[in-house]
Specification:
It contains five helices and no strands. The protein has one domain: Ribosomal protein L20, C-terminal domain (c-terminal domain of poly(a) binding protein, Orthogonal Bundle), CATH 1.10.1900.20. The protein is 75% helix and 0% strand. Helix 4 packs across helix 5.
């Protein structure tokens, strides 16, 4: 079997790594070894932070809901959620938060319906 030189493949691999590390600072964008290491870390952070983002948004929705709920006569966010569950209204926090911020009149109607 004839010998195959791997120059083109190696070049393509290096080029790919360096192009993915474009915009990184210092040697991370110019040297292959540093770029590879930076990409590995970037991938780990990206994976972890995609998970964290879900928690961050949930916290934001809860803060918004708590503010809106207190304006509409409820003692706390947890009391509001408890009343929702007892009434059998199945709206998630994202929808409730959006309703409270973009359409406060309908949220107020919902709150009065739950408290009654």
């Amino acid at each position: 079997m004839p010998r195959v030189k791997g120059g083109t493949t190696s070049l393509k691999r290096r080029k790919s790594v360096l192009s993915r590390a474009k915009g990184y600072r210092h040697s991370r964008s110019t040297k292959e070894r540093h770029a590879k290491e930076a990409l590995v870390h970037a991938g780990k952070y990206a994976f972890a932070h995609r998970r964290d983002k879900k928690n961050d948004f949930r916290q934001l929705w809860i803060v918004r809901l708590n503010a809106a709920v207190r304006e509409n006569g409820f003692r706390s966010y947890s009391a509001f959620i408890d009343a929702l569950k007892k009434k059998g209204i199945a709206l998630d926090r994202k929808v409730l938060s959006e309703l409270a911020s973009s359409n406060p009149e309908s949220f107020a109607r919902l709150a009065t319906k739950i408290s009654a």
